[in-house]
Amino acid sequence: MEFRRVGASGLRISEIVFGNWLTLDGQIDQDAQVDCIRAALDSGITTYDTADIYSGGLAEQVLGRALKGVRRSSVEIATKVCLPVGTGPNDKGLSRKHIMESCNNSLRRLGTDYVDLYQAHRFDADTPLEESMKAFADLVRQGKVLYVGVSEWTAEQIERGHTLATEMGVPLISNQPQYSILWRVIEAEVNPTSRRLGMGQIVFSPVAQGVLTGKYQPGGSAPEGSRATDARGTRFVGRYMSDTVLERVQRLRPLAEEASLTMAQLAVAWVLQNPGVAGAIIGASRPEQVAENTAAAGVRLPADLLKRIDDTLDDLIERDPAKTADLFNVMPTWRR
């Protein structure tokens, strides 16, 4: 495993990060997820990402259970706040009330006194940004949070948040966006702004919800137990399930074989090779998937291979920066 600094901060994380988003959200049982987390520990992964909304808080509980007995200072735990965790008017957003209460609840579920990185899961236009940043700063001063980051914020939102957070002495150090060979919307605005401000990208879905592993065949049925067969998983992977996309993805297979990599390893290695990326978040439903993905750590792809990847996917690559805040269309479920 290799380790990278998150932006200009002193925090170092494993370049492969383990996340338990959809892999625990009704898709696999708790014991299987614990096995995957322990496989991640064995593989050298030290950084673990979760959120208060994942499986209604169960994801944090399972992560805490899996890390019980592990020396706390040997791992980095990241969680998030903003998306709705209940039906009450204050069970969502980035108000001081919700941030403080959610942080305490996350710490309880995780079984720890602090989290290394606390992230605003989305931007909240209904709460004054000053209120949100002050709450995050207070959590840092209380010792409950070591660093603060955001997730899926636009470049303009990142700029505003970073300015306020810096004035309060707790500059934002990270952004957590979706990023893959197919989904590159951060490249035009978000990543350049973040790099200028000293923030790193800790990216999720580097294998595009499993599509870039090559397991989905054009014209074929989705493998049993895959995200494409799960009602919730289909909501996220569905954008990639056309035969046009799947056929083009299959053309990456010989490129991966040429580099002596699996298609999943090629996808993760590609993400890690891009400037500004501090870590790539992987998920797994089986321990062997963890081992496969972590083998992408330290891989360097030659320039000619990178060009052929671009040429292969070409017009299927999403680059529109306006798609940054539109990810999965989750916000309209609770914002006015």
Intertermini distance: 44 Å
Q: In oligomeric terms, what are we looking at?
A: single chain
Query: What is the CATH class of the domain at 11-207 and 267-299?
Result: Alpha Beta
How many β-strands, per DSSP? 10
Low-confidence stretches: 328-336
Sheet with most strands: 8 strands, parallel, barrel
What structural class should be given to the helix and strand makeup?
Answer: alpha/beta
Spell out the helices and strands N to C: EEEHEHEHEHEHEHEHHHHEHH
> What is the percentage of strand-forming residues?
5-15%
Rg result: 19 Å
The percentage helix is 25-40%
Number of helices in the DSSP assignment: 12
CATH superfamily of the domain at 11-207 and 267-299: NADP-dependent oxidoreductase domain
Shape: globular
CATH architecture descriptor text of the domain at 11-207 and 267-299: Alpha-Beta Barrel
What is the CATH topology of the domain at 11-207 and 267-299? TIM Barrel
Family: Belongs to the shaker potassium channel beta subunit family.
Keywords: NADP, Oxidoreductase
InterPro entries: K_chnl_volt-dep_bsu_KCNAB-rel (IPR005399), NAD(P)_OxRdtase_dom_sf (IPR036812), NADP_OxRdtase_dom (IPR023210)
Pfam families: Aldo_ket_red (PF00248)
